[in-house]
Write a structure and sequence with these properties.
heterodimer, A: 121 residues, mainly alpha, 5 helices, elongated, B: 201 residues
Chain lengths: 121, 201
């Protein structure tokens, strides 16, 4: 047995289709509501008015001082940001440093053993 | 004694915020906020204009909305909210403050938008359509605030049910019911003015 979605859910789906430019097929009881929805779209078109004050607004946004807390959060976020290039470089430097350290210790130990052996003889 | 209010169901998490990369960029570098401004300025402006009915007031509300958004952006986290739902919530609060300041009557008809060329070559048809659209704006303007809000957010700004739920601080189910009631209310008001059929619900 299938459960019919409520009128509100059916209407929501139909409106979604309407906004996507489709012509949804709905029950006769919902049709007047969908017709009203189509009229709303025609009566309230988008208003492209923001470009009239865009330059003023962008200047204002650029001049807006950043709060100390926001700046600290931003710097923390930048410090924590994942940067693959920087991580790879750090990894390479660390590996090289470790390799050099191991080599130096090995050479030092072998010389120390050789010196001890000579003294023993 | 006040009765306890039912706890609304939480809004579902968005699958993906299309603005995510630009939000991250703007959080790291404020200059990148201009991208988000250009993407949403017209829509916030339209939302403000249809509620405030005045270009100057709409500009002011748009400006306040974006300044508040830019200040708060470092703290924005995608916790069940898309950027645009978060932005429109700021716009919603900004416009509510403007309403309180102006004490605007809620029954004012919505203002006309910009005139699009009418597709009907019949002059009588053009006049009839213009009358009908004016009645639609008048009917929406006469609606209770929550019904008018849901219609504007759904049809002018194209927000999804889940996003409207975040803006209006309601559950998605409550928003669906509100949209249904709003359109039924509108259809009835239009039928009273001789447009369309009376909803039999």
């Amino acid at each position: 047995m299938t459960i019919r979605p409520s009128q509100a859910v059916q209407l929501d789906h139909a409106v979604e289709e309407l906004l996507a430019g489709e012509r949804p097929v709905v029950e006769p009881t919902i049709r007047p509501l969908l017709d009203a929805a189509a009229l709303v779209r025609a009566a309230l078109p988008p208003i492209p008015g923001a470009d009239r004050f865009e330059s003023r607004m962008l200047n204002r946004l650029a001049r807006e001082p950043e709060s100390r807390a926001a700046a600290a959060r931003r710097q923390l976020a930048q410090a924590a940001a994942w940067r693959p290039g920087r991580a790879m470089a750090a990894g390479a430097v660390s590996s090289a440093a470790l390799g050099i350290t191991v080599t130096v210790v090995a050479v030092w130990r072998s010389r120390r053993h050789s010196a001890a052996a000579r003294m023993g003889n | 004694m006040t009765r306890p209010q039912p706890v609304p169901e939480p809004a579902p998490l968005p699958v993906g915020d299309p603005d995510r990369a630009d939000v991250r960029a703007a959080q790291a570098d404020r200059a990148a906020f201009a991208v988000l401004y250009r993407r949403y300025a017209d829509r916030v402006y339209g939302y403000a204009f249809y509620q405030l009915g005045d270009h100057h007031d709409a500009e002011d509300a748009t400006e306040r909305t974006f300044l508040a958004a830019m200040r708060a952006l470092p703290a924005f986290r995608e916790q069940g909210s898309t950027f645009r739902a978060w932005l429109f919530r700021i716009a919603h609060n900004t416009i509510a403050n403007a309403h309180r300041t102006r004490s605007r009557r809620s029954a004012d008809p919505l203002p006309e938008g910009w005139d699009r060329p009418a597709p009907d070559p019949d002059p009588a048809g053009v006049v009839a359509l213009a009358d009908e659209l004016r009645d639609v704006r008048h009917a929406i303007g006469a609606m209770p605030d929550d019904r008018r809000q849901v219609i504007l957010l759904r049809f002018v700004d194209g927000l999804s049910t889940a996003e409207i739920a975040q803006v209006l601080d309601r559950s998605p189910g409550a928003v669906r019911v509100l949209l249904h009631r709003s359109l039924r209310d509108l259809a009835r008001r239009l039928a009273e003015r001789g447009h369309g059929g009376e909803p039999d619900l």
